[in-house]
Design a protein that fits this description.
This protein has 12 helices and 7 strands. It is of the alpha+beta class. The protein has a 7-stranded mixed beta sheet, with helices on both faces. Strand 3 and strand 4 form a beta hairpin.
């Protein structure tokens, strides 16, 4: 009887769960969070096809291992290192984009505060008004335009592909830049703060297969620059005169001047207390009427 009890105790000890501490739970949550976001990111890129191919190769390796296929195992052993290096080279753009997204302040600002006391106002209300006025006039005339508002990520590599201007932002200048048969009308304009820094800039085209087939190069370029940076891009269609905005790889089509103004205000960087104060005085003025 004692031997039976001893055997049961030994068996229960073997199948018993290990002691779980708070650190273990935290570690599990961090790993689960990382795996979820990595999987979500992979599904939206070309790397998803790669992952499915790797799974097929892994299943082939398991079959070869259990059936003791020595030649196939030898091939896997000799090519695995070269294969990993080749994958890193082929998918370098996707890996770069992932690291850029990881380094953006929007992701880590909740953990590590950046420049809390810094004035983050990117551009003035006058700049907003000039951009909206120029965009509306370009849309009425059905003049194609591509205007990029730079934010945290500096667009110097794309600025170098164009012609330096370094001028104050005005609706008249923006309209004149995109006027047909002018030297600067082709390409994109990059705005930094309250200045126009360059025109006729070349941008990367988006390879997002979800975009409508009716969209041309101008819209794909606008979405493409928003995929590799945190910029906001204003697009005016030359065919329809419709206004679109591209942010974070997403395209919002057929908007009006008021909605464009709202998007520009959202990235302007005004302190929350200033916005609340302005809203308070507006409400108070309405009530006094």
């Amino acid at each position: 009887m004692d031997s039976v009890i001893a055997s049961l105790k030994k068996y229960i000890y073997v199948v018993s769960f290990p002691k779980i501490t708070v650190v273990d739970v935290l570690e599990i949550l961090i790993i689960a969070f990382a795996l979820y976001h990595v999987t979500s990111w992979v599904r939206k890129t070309r790397a998803w096809t790669l992952v499915k191919g790797i799974l097929v190769l892994f299943l082939a390796y398991l079959v070869a291992y259990f059936l003791d296929m020595s030649v196939i195992l030898w091939v896997f052993d000799k090519t695995i290192g070269i294969g990993i290096t080749a994958l890193v080279i082929v998918f370098q753009p996707e890996l770069r984009k992932a690291l850029e997204e990881l380094g953006q302040k929007t992701i880590v600002s909740s953990i590590i505060p950046f420049d809390e006391n810094k004035d983050n106002l990117r551009f003035t209300d006058r700049t907003v008004n000039e951009i909206v006025r120029a965009t509306e006039e370009l849309a009425k005339a059905k003049t194609g335009a591509l205007i990029i508002m730079e934010r945290e990520i500096i667009l110097s590599e794309y600025e170098r592909t164009g012609i330096n201007i370094d001028s104050a932002i005005s609706s008249q200048l923006l309209i004149n830049i995109f006027e047909h048969n002018t030297p600067l009308h082709d390409g994109a304009v990059i705005l930094r703060g309250d200045r126009i820094v360059a025109a006729t800039c070349y941008l990367p085209l988006s390879d997002n297969m979800g975009l409508s087939k009716e969209l041309g190069t101008r819209h794909r370029a606008g979405v493409g620059i928003s995929e590799v940076s945190d910029s906001l891009t204003v697009i005016v269609s030359e065919e329809t005169g419709k206004i679109s905005v591209a942010v974070g790889g997403k395209l919002l089509r057929n908007i009006d001047g008021d909605l464009l103004r709202k998007h520009l205000k959202d990235i302007q960087g005004k302190p929350l207390e200033e916005k609340a104060k302005k809203h308070f005085w507006k409400r108070k003025g309405d009530s006094d009427r």
